[in-house]
Amino acid sequence: MVAKLVVFKGTKDGLTIHLDPSADPSEVLVALRQELAQNRSFFGTGSTVVINTGGRLLESEELIQILKVLGEHGLTLSGLVTTGETACSKDQRKPEPVPTEPGAKLIRRTLRSGMQVRHDGDVVIVGDLNPGAEVVASGDIVVFGTLRGVVHAGATGDSSAQVMALRLAPTQLRIADLIARSPDEKEALPDRPEVARVKDGAVIIEEFAS
Amino acid sequence: MESKVIVITSGKGGVGKTTTTANLGMGLAEKGYRVCLVDADIGLRNLDVVMGLENRIVYDLVDVVEGHCRLRQALIKDKRNENLYLLPAAQTRDKDAVQPDQMKALCQELKEQFNYVLVDSPAGIERGFKNAIAGADESIIVTTPEVSAVRDADRIIGLLEASEIYEPKLVINRLRPDMVRKGDMMDIDDVIEILAIPLLGVVPDDEAIIVSTNKGEPAVTDKNSRAGQAYRNIVRRITGEEVPLMDFSSQGFIEKLRRLMGGR
Fold first, then answer.
1. Which residue among B21, B29, B72, B139 is least crowded, i.e. fewest CB within 10 A of its CB?
2. Contact assignment for B158 to A128 by CB distance below 8 Å
3. pLDDT digit string (tens) for B17-62?
4. Number of CB pairs < 8 Å for A and B?
């Protein structure tokens, strides 16, 4: 995965935005603006977010700019997190890079109608994903069961993301900014594992071959 | 025996919760159990009408909860079966008139006097639903073989789990075997595959139900009604008997003839 300057991460307290501590502040700001614009669907307007500076120290001017960008997308900043001692200071320290590689989330149950999972990283479900349930992940989505609901893999723009299921029959399947829907005519359930991925700008579904 | 509070719920409206509550209640009472039906659909009460007891209501559930009367005063004894009682809903109030905690206390009090307390839940997932499930030990999900009803049932199962009411049992209502055979209706297996909960019974679509509902006579007492037979089977399963599912496959000439002759 190419290192991104800005990474969104869902936590139990809400969304955390990780800023690459080693990148140029102005580039980070541009990336933040782009990512927010591309991933409007990933968070609701009016949400609060936490900024993780990853040990870098924000200049006050930079903080003001970040607040402005967040405000443009209807987000409010609820806190700053850092691995250094303070997140916003004149004190000059060597920035420490923090690992921002998102992990996988394992769900050992069937997701029923009305349930929703959002995760920055891969999502693995051991159980079914029923119609009316929804999974949004920035990485891959794997369902060890029947996938009948709505899935969005690579939700932050990663079109190399894939969706796999033992029986793949989604209501709607999205990868990055592409949307595929189930055929309007009722079809028999597939009897073997399948994988959906993006090929030549379209979502294709093929038999899973390891 | 241990008393049980069972909530009968569906999510979607019009799938037959009230009819199912009335029939199972009457069926259990006919088996000799002491049964109380609770109409939790405050503001849209129906169970009293389906039971033909509307004209006997003096006090209702909200009166009990608000302390305007004692529980005993609000309970209406059924006109056919002395084991069966109804606690009617208020018609002039709404769901907010009752809190889940109050329902829980009410169900506890009823449990001391009855073997089975059946709570008829309103449609939806809001306050009325939360009230209905507040005091429940077990649940019965009613659905019809329609995609929308099954979708809502699935949501309800998830919400029940979240409220720590596990292992709901399923009643599939208004199945039309002829339509299933032609592939025009979801069959039992399609429904079970999505909901993945134990099947308590399947009730065939039966015009006799509409007649009996309008007359205020639960079909479970009608020996000639196929739906009534299905409800009698469900009652036996609730009490722990093993009863095979009714056979819907052969409704040919002989079967029709047998029904005409009054057998089954």
1. B72
2. no
3. 999 999 999 999 999 999 999 999 999 999 999 999 998 999 999 9
4. 28
